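Now read the record:
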Amino acid sequence: MRRASGRSAKRARRPRRPLPALRRPHLSKEHARLVRVAARARRRAYAPYSQFPVGAAVLASDGTVYAGCNVENASYGLALCAERVAIHTAVANGRRRLTAVAVVGPAGITLTPCGACRQVMEEFGVQNVILASPRGAPTLVAFPALLPSPFPQVAARGRHAGL
């Protein structure tokens, strides 16, 4: 269908501008390594229900890298996100200070961590999140842009006194 003026009835869409907090810089060697580890972890994802494999890798403050992938379950509430699997693996190995997380999802999708993963990242001091897919340039996001108002951390002693 064409308008009387000769222009198409369909409006041309404006290209979306990335959010100001998202940057596509040249990644440091450490961050590039995180993306590679997360991409490998993605291949090990157990996602028979969603067919949506995700891999993640976390960088501890001492330079150690831990990988994780999403693990689904027939009872959907029991599924685990790749980011939390990687973070919990780091914690299980004695790491408490984490500086960066890379997340790799399917091609063509801009994937960001869910709210639960963001809160867990806050708990362990993550400063940067790298969002990537098997193709395309990764995006570096400053963590506060993803979770501007986290739940406050309360000293474990006061919260669980007497337990």
